[in-house]
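When time allows, look over one protein, given below as sequence and tokens. The question is which stretches look regular and which look disordered:
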Amino acid sequence: MIGMIAAVLTTSSFIPQIFKAYRSKRLDDLSPYLMLLFIAGASMWFIYGVFKADIIIVVANMLALAFNSTLLIMKVVYANRLEQNR
């Protein structure tokens, strides 16, 4: 039960940042290195969860990967738009 609650809390922590980024169209204060390192770590946790057949680890990290990848894509797209408008 504690693992499930932890998975929900940590995975859902990206949702407010996604909404903020969508509204402001700015992610210049968000480090791409942080996002890439997180994607690498969550990928490893996902693989670990698959090998352990632990659905909580698999789903939590699959969603975390999706959310973090969304932020990284938004960062690139919005930075390109800002650069084109200059």
